Structure formats: structure tokens, C-alpha cells
């Protein structure tokens, strides 16, 4: 198996609403395909698909609640940029769950939730080149 | 905001067990940092972090159950390779939840679960270059 992830698919409640949110963040939507949205990011594809259909595709129950136990991190090159991206996410309709702050591992980070509650960390990490 | 995801972090129950699983799939672990595992993939970083600590870091409740409402897709260049990767995942200790099969959108795909139940789709897609 190659060490790569081609697509991250988020199962969403409202495709139109979620698409608008990510479009406001500057992600370019490919809506050539019906019923699914693909955002071609710099390094992989982010897909939005109705939650129910995603569960059906994986042949699992759609039932679930609470913490999804994963986060997506968006790394930037300075503390200021962490705050700027969090502000941008808020303006787009996201909810700040943790304001940018110095963290125990020596970086600076905060979190926002997208319209479905998916957690994005915005981080400045002085130890790893993730920008 | 740039259109990129730097890291996907999975909140896991057992760091050692999960690390072994992904190592068996051929992902190279960087365990230079204590208490967190980073796999530098071709296009982004996959991190494993204890579930409880991940929730704490995001300042959200760790409570959650059932469908996490997201999938990670690993695309390959043929139907045969879909079956081969699924077999590899099973051998590594993953659970096949959907065997490779022709799917409605014109491709061929199957799913496996990692030790924490995270869903990976293995897919051949003749319409998009995701390999």
C-alpha cells in the first residue's frame, strides 16, 4: 500500500450549506458530479457527501453522535496567521471552539468547527515544516 | 486560507496497537515525539494520538459513538489493486467491511476498518486521477 490518502470525505447534513462554507474559506468546488462536491486542495481532495449516503456506501449504520475522534489540521507560518485563519473561519460561519493560544508542545493553535461540527485545528508548529 | 490539509489526526484507543497496524501497511512512523505518532505520507501527515488527549486538546467532550461520518480514501490504478490492498489491510489486522465491487458511480471500491473502526475506502476511479 502506498503511503497516501487520496480523498477525505466528510458526511454532511446539508450539502449546499457545507459547500458554501468551504467556498467562503477559498476552496474551489468541483460540482461537475451530481450529489457530491469535490474540493481539489493542494495536496489531496476534500469531498462532501450526504452523511446517510456515505454510511450506505460503506455499508455501515449512519447512527453516531458526539466526538468523531479525528481532526484536520491546517498549518500556517506564524501565530498571527493562526488568528487570521480562525477569524476567517468564523466569518465564513464556522464556530471557534478554542482561540489561538500557546500550547504545551511549543506551538500555537486553535480550533474551529465547520457547519457539521467537524474539527479543524489551525496551528503554527515551529518544529515541523507543515506549511 | 490556503486550500490544504497538513495533518489528519486520528484519536485512538491504543497508540501501540494502531501504530503497528499502520506500520504493517507500510507507513513509516516517526516516533521522535513522545505520546504521538506521525506518519509522513506522500502528500500529508497522518497522526495518531490518544482519543482522550485529542478531545482535550480541542477542548471538546471525548464522548462519542457510532459512525464518525468521514472516510479516508486510498485510490489505486486498477480493480485488482483494490482487492490487493484490502487483502493487505486484512492481513495487517484490519476488518473488511465491504469487499471490492463495482459501484454505482462507475468505479470499483471496498472498505476496511482500522483497529479503532476508522473507515478507509480503497478505490479505483476511472474518471479522476487520484493515484
- Which architecture name of the largest domain in chain A does CATH use? Roll
- CATH fold name of the largest domain in chain A: 2,3-Dihydroxybiphenyl 1,2-Dioxygenase, domain 1
Return the domain count of chain A. Answer: 2
Name the CATH superfamily assignment of the largest domain in chain A.
Answer: 2,3-Dihydroxybiphenyl 1,2-Dioxygenase, domain 1
Main β-sheet, spatial strand arrangement of chain A: 1-4-3-2
What is the ordering of alpha helices and beta strands of chain A?
EHEEEHEEHEEE
Oligomer: homodimer
Biggest sheet of chain A, in brief?
4 strands, mixed
The percentage of residues in β strands of chain A lies in 35-45%
Number of helices of chain A: 3
CATH class of the largest domain in chain A: Alpha Beta
Helix/strand/pairing category of chain A? alpha/beta
Q: Give the uncertain stretches of chain A in residue-range form.
A: none
From the alpha carbons, calculate the radius of gyration of chain A and give it in angstroms.
Answer: 15 Å
Kindly state the number of beta strands of chain A: 9
The geometry of chain A reads as: globular
Amino acid at each position: 500500500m502506498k503511503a497516501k490518502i487520496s480523498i477525505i470525505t466528510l458526511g454532511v447534513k446539508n450539502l449546499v450549506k457545507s459547500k458554501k462554507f468551504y467556498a467562503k474559506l477559498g476552496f474551489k468546488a468541483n460540482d461537475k458530479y451530481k450529489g457530491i462536491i469535490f474540493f481539489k486542495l493542494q495536496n489531496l481532495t476534500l469531498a462532501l457527501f450526504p452523511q446517510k449516503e456515505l454510511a450506505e456506501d460503506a455499508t455501515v449504520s449512519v447512527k453516531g453522535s458526539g466526538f468523531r475522534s479525528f481532526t484536520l489540521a491546517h498549518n500556517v507560518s506564524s501565530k498571527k496567521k493562526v488568528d487570521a485563519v480562525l477569524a476567517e473561519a468564523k466569518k465564513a460561519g464556522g464556530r471557534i471552539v478554542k482561540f489561538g493560544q500557546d500550547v504545551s508542545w511549543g506551538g500555537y493553535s486553535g480550533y474551529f468547527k465547520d457547519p457539521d461540527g467537524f474539527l479543524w485545528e489551525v496551528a503554527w508548529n515551529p518544529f515541523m515544516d507543515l506549511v
